[in-house]
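Sample intake sheet
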Amino acid sequence: MYFALDPAVVEDKALSRRHFLKVGVMAILASISPRLGFATMDEPPSPHKSLSFYETHTGESLETTYWAEGKYRSEALADINHILRDYRTGEAKAIDTRLLDLLFAIRLKVRTQQPFHVISGYRSPKTNALLRRCGRGVARNSLHMCGQAVDIRLPGCALTLLRRMAIDLRGGGVGYYPRPNFVHIDVGRVRYW
């Protein structure tokens, strides 16, 4: 028995297969490299990236555009390095731009212009050792010492929502600290506590 296929049906099925394969490949890539998931397919790339910070220990504030015209702005990065410095020692270190991009992605998801309240940014080895001796659950090889972690809260955003947004982005580690009222975010391997 022979069945003739309508060309329109064949074309629709081929298109559906192509769409299915395209979506499948994108899902595989996202699972292999979670950092590709920062931008959603619905949002066009931003022509600039801005962040604002309030350092809770020093009272300093910063609002800056750290990425524009397709590149990171060195003056803005220097300002960010300064505000996220170890406030105990005054030492600063270059903050990993992946961390800044993760914070920017969180800001977009939360849809806020509020500054991130910084509890801890860069931590010198000396400060990290001091905090470990005080028994505050500080990791020996903390990513804070590499400029790859920040402890934050965000005014007007529940801590649980901030944690959920960070987890959904799968950009690294997310720690939840409800008693001292902050969320730890880093660009290390994806893990949650």
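Comment: The beta strands are 48-55, 61-68, 71-72, 116-120, 149-153, 173-177, 182-186, 191-192. The chain has two domains: 7-32, 43-192.
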